[in-house]
Structure formats: structure tokens, C-alpha cells
């Protein structure tokens, strides 16, 4: 397997870039781009991401990699784990959700508040490709995901 943490680190920057382009910075009327209170004291923008994927795909290991922690020896996620981190001008909240079959029912509860989805795939797990296909289709077709950036 390749280094999922590093790949996701780069890709999550891209997700935030997309989000940034969609939400232009507020400017005072008539300011013509001069510094405003907001640009002099830039505020962190809050971004919420939901991380999903089959169990054992490497979601929690990836989050640990992003945080600079050891991605080895992680236990399966029961329920979810919430991770807050800062990335440039963004305050990022990642909901790392358990991928077990019985836990997947809770995923949809996080879609509304999320700006984007990170779908983690273990590409070496060819045995479960059909399960992956069906699970991914269900996520991508969900009405609360439609139109939002998705990183695989
Ligand atoms: N070699 C290698 N092992 C990895 C990598 N990513 C994850 N693992 C291992 O794969 C196993 C499962 O990783 P997890 O991060 O717990 O998977 P998960 O998607 O969070 O699983 P659930 O919480 O059950 O949904 C762990 O033993 C990790 O150490 C990787 O990039 N390389
Ligand atoms: Mg996990």
C-alpha cells in the first residue's frame, strides 16, 4: 500500500482550495480590494469533512498521518472519531466514521454539515471491490452529498 496519509494531505489541500474558490472573501462595499478589517485580521474558515470507506480501508490511519502521528496499530473505529486541525487559513473538522457494515447507517447523519467527502479506498483489497462499488454508489447518490466535492 502506498502512503495514504501523504496522499490525503495533498488532496485535502486541494479540497480546501475548491472550497475557498466557492466562498469568496467578504469585502466592504466600495473597498476596491483595499485591506478591510477581515483581511487585516483574517479569520479561520471552518471546513467540515466526512471521511468514509469500507472497514479496514485506512481512514483512521490516514487521519493519524495527517496529524503527524504514527498510523500503525490503529483499532477499528466504533461509531466515529472527531478530529480538529488547522490547515493554512482553515479550521478543519474531520469526522472519521467507522466503516463496518453495521456502522454505515450513521454516515448519512454527517452529510448535511459536511462541505466535502473523503472516501478512502484500499486499492489492494480486490476481494471487496463489489462491496466497495455498492457502498460508494450509495454515498455519491445521496441527496445531501450531491454537488459537494468528493476526494477518493
Ligand atoms: N502498510 C500500510 N498499512 C496501513 C495503511 N493504512 C492503514 N493501514 C493499516 O490497515 C489497518 C486498518 O486501518 P484503519 O485506519 O484502522 O482502517 P479504517 O478504515 O479506519 O477502519 P474502520 O475504523 O474499521 O472503518 C491498520 O492495521 C493500519 O495500520 C497504509 O497506508 N499502509
Ligand atoms: Mg477507523
UniProtKB/TrEMBL annotation:
Stored Pfam families: Arf (PF00025)
GO molecular function, one term: metal ion binding
InterPro entries referenced in this protein's UniProt entry, alphabetically: Ciliary_GTPase, P-loop_NTPase, Small_GTPase_ARF/SAR
Keyword set, alphabetical order: GTP-binding, Magnesium, Metal-binding, Nucleotide-binding
A GO CC term assigned to this protein in UniProt: motile cilium
Positions bound to Mg(2+): 60, 77
TM helices/strands, residue ranges: none
Signal peptide bounds: none
A GO biological-process term: receptor localization to non-motile cilium
Binding residues annotated for GTP, in chain numbering: 53-60, 99
Protein name per its UniProtKB record: ADP-ribosylation factor-like protein 13B
Source species of the chain: Notothenia coriiceps
Native organism taxonomy: Eukaryota, Metazoa, Chordata, Craniata, Vertebrata
Gene responsible for this protein: LOC104943699
